[in-house]
Prior knowledge:
This protein is of the alpha+beta class. The protein has one domain (about 5-150): Roll (Pnp Oxidase, Chain A). The chain contains three helices and eight strands, in the order αββββαββαββ. Strands 1, 2, 3, 4, 5, 6, 7 and 8 form an eight-stranded antiparallel sheet that branches. β1 and β2 form a beta hairpin. The two termini are about 20 Å apart.
Amino acid sequence: MALSKKELESLIIDFIKTQGMCVLATCRDGLPRASAVEFFPEGTTLYILTEGGLKLGNLAANHNVSVAIHTQFTGWDTIKGIQITGTAKVGNSGSSIFNEGVEAYKKRRGLKSVSVPEFMSIIKVTPQKIEYLDTTLKAKGLDTRHILEY
């Protein structure tokens, strides 16, 4: 049995809130790069604070990204994770993306204020498609794989 779009999005948002790390995959000139990074969600949108690195150069050349978020493997009957296909934009200090990311950071950390160094950038990942895998749904008579498209 399938989930409604609203039910699926709710499951995905709840799952994202339980995780703190993701793997962000970028690509330039046919060379992929996967970076393990901390993220700060706002719904299904992810914000990532970064000091820079090759991922920013890749994003300047190609804004398409893939993101994987998953739980630790403890057995085949408890696998849970998502695969996001989307686009990313980079915001520097003072930009709306930067400010949105700082707000997501404060919200997740439970902070009223924070000082983010000006040399930091924030990556905003906007999903186009989210593939959700949750093998615990089988016990509820539901499909274990679902796709949410925007």
